[in-house]
Design goal:
177 residues, alpha/beta, Leucine Aminopeptidase, subunit E, domain 1, 7-stranded mixed β-sheet, globular
């Protein structure tokens, strides 16, 4: 699924985010940044032990925040570690925290002058955020950002790790194409 906004390609891809040849990947991290499971563990495995060392120096990261490290052995130059919220039924500021992850990742992308960025489905795994709600929140943030994208940015990829997340992203992008 593909759309183009102000010269930036936006696509949905199903697979392993660690294999994408992009400038930066947005890791669905936890507060410890230690790669304990899911996408976070896969990113740590693929990047190598240097990533854990770099993350330990950061001393963790709060929900709604994003920390940055080099990509080390990954094809991506940068890893943006976005700590998404745990879903608690929508009554605990989860939507705002998730939106903050996307917003701060896009700010970092502009600061680092990345040409391409791939987002994991933040909070949709172990944190149980409903995939369709998460995709709508993410798209709202990205669409606002794409009204005046930075000159370097040419591609945004939303990476789905399973069929449910993939369907949710396709549904959101079909609605805006």
């Amino acid at each position: 699924m593909l759309t183009v906004r102000n010269g930036v390609r936006v696509e949905v891809w199903r697979g392993d985010i660690t294999q994408l040849d992009v400038s930066a990947i947005v890791n669905a991290a936890n507060v410890s940044l230690r790669g304990s499971g899911g996408v976070d563990a896969a990113v740590h495995r693929a990047a190598g032990g240097e990533l854990l060392s770099a993350c330990l120096q950061l001393n963790g990261c709060a929900a709604g925040e994003v920390c940055v490290t080099p990509g080390f052995a990954l094809p991506a130059r940068w890893v943006f570690h976005a700590v998404g919220p745990r879903w608690k039924g929508g009554e605990d500021n989860e939507a705002q925290l998730l939106a903050s992850c996307y917003h701060k990742s896009l700010q970092l992308a502009a600061d680092k002058q990345v040409a391409s960025i791939a987002f994991a489905a933040i909070s949709c795994g172990a944190n149980h955020f409903p995939p369709l709600a998460a995709a709508n929140i993410a798209w709202h943030v990205v669409e606002t950002y794409l009204a005046a994208p930075p000159p370097a940015l040419r591609k945004i990829v939303f990476v789905a790790f399973d069929e449910e997340v993939h369907r949710a992203w396709q549904k959101v992008l079909v609605g805006i194409s």
